[in-house]
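Q: I have 581 residues here and want to know how they pack in 3D. Can you give me a structure?
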Amino acid sequence: MPSSKPQRPTPYSSRSLRGDDLVTPRWHPKRSTCVMLLISLAFAALVARAGWVQIVEHDFHVAQGEKRHRQMLSLEAKRGPIVDRDGALLAVSLTTYEIWADPKRFDRNALEPLAKTLGVRKAHVQSRLDSGRSNVLLKRHVDAQTASRITDLALPGVTQIPTSKRFYPEGESAAHVVGLTDSDDVGQEGVELAADRLLTGQPGEREVIRDRLGRVVSDLRPLVPARHGQTVRLTIDRRIQQLAFAQLKAALERHEAQAGSVVVLDANTGEILALANAPSFDPNARASLTANTMRNRAAVDTFEPGSTIKPLAIATAIEAGRIRPETLIDTAPGWYRIGRNTIHDTTNHGTVSVAEALTTSSNIALAKIGLTLPPESLWTAYRQYGLGVAPPLPFPGVAAGKLRPWARWRPVEQATMAYGYGLSTSLLQMAQAYTALAGDGTMRPVSLLAREPSSDSPPAPEHAAPVTTAATAAALRTMLEAATLEGGTGGAARVEGYRVGGKTGTAWKHAGTGYAKGKYRSLFVGIAPIDAPRLVVAVMIDEPSKRSYYGGPVAGPVFSSVAGGALQLLGVPPTRTGPDA
């Protein structure tokens, strides 16, 4: 075979290839310098910026970081409970929840089950979600059971915030005493308002760091625990309060009356065991509140006390040495003229003793007794009995009543002052005044906030001073008992098994500058038992419109039911076996 001819390699260029050509860059050397310069400048800028942030703006950025991750959380202070004298709950804060939703994260397919669980209309939830806000409140004060059911739904964007709601176990029976709070748990009425500072407490603090998801990852310092509100204990006896309210409501229905009040005091201390008003309100149902039902009539309403003031006038005259219980007074012929004014009795009682004048409730006899006294003496005595002076209670708006200066009294006004016209008092004031007759002649100031056993603070001097002697007080108790026996005006107030005493009252109601025709207040204020006083009970029925309107048959039975039931609840042993024993 012919031999092949070797081929010559094709040259790359006219010059031979050297090793330096394999590593030498193909671009201009100045380009490398330019790139390196730019990189150096960038690093220099980063270093400068880091220095600026770390040194010059250090405090600002630390503050911004803390603002986003370091937070101060407020620890809620629970409002203190209100309890009666034996510790039974009258007001307590229950744990509830606020339900919030993030419209962007919320699944609209879950709209109906959420609304059904919350007990609201679907349209309400829809409108809240469409409000354009980033986080919306769907419902406040949701109970724990409902909140648990919402948790079980596992709805995205729905959160729960623990709050509290005030609950009143006694409802409307103790509403005027306890009062209520607003939606923010701030006291608005009654003890809730009067003792708001004690009940509110002091919130705590917790300083924490949160991660980017908002979770608490650590505490920066020990937390400051919340100081919960104090327990406020009242002198109220829950059982007697329920009894008084029930009997009052029944009396209003029976006599078709407009309103009424009952006050029950401890005769030895002046402590309020019950204070009931009707119509009342349920503090748990805020939607039904009205100004008429919320008025604490026993403490803020004033009226002319009528014949219930007669025992005070008689005691004053006995102390002044003007009369004795057996002193005779001529009331014939059943009317008595003072200048151009005429005073009437319901009938011609003839000549009666002072004791009989109280038993028969003679206006003429009391007018004559009142005129035997210097006006200043009667005015001073009434002031000592607490008339014209607001009772020392923490309630806002407690009435002082009106007792005009004695120097301005005309003779007829001095006479009417002795049988309960020309001045005004509250039912609470009349009950307080009778504590002086129930004991040793010293009026006991009413109180509502129970003193702790260690407290020995004396009552206000103006209210604690002796008003009359023990002998005069005992004489008045004998007369008051006679008024509830055969022939007295208060026979309907008798209590089976106990000796009681008291005074009826029937007072015209004011209308403009005069009196309203056919409109009365029926009253009874009494002491039980009369031989060893334990209770003072005052009853007022406003505008009874069915058959009788006199204090004896209208207010007397309420006294009988309340006093009799309260004595049994307190364990006071009977003093006799029958009403006439």
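Q: Anything worth noting?
A: The radius of gyration is 41 Å. The longest strand covers residues 514-528.
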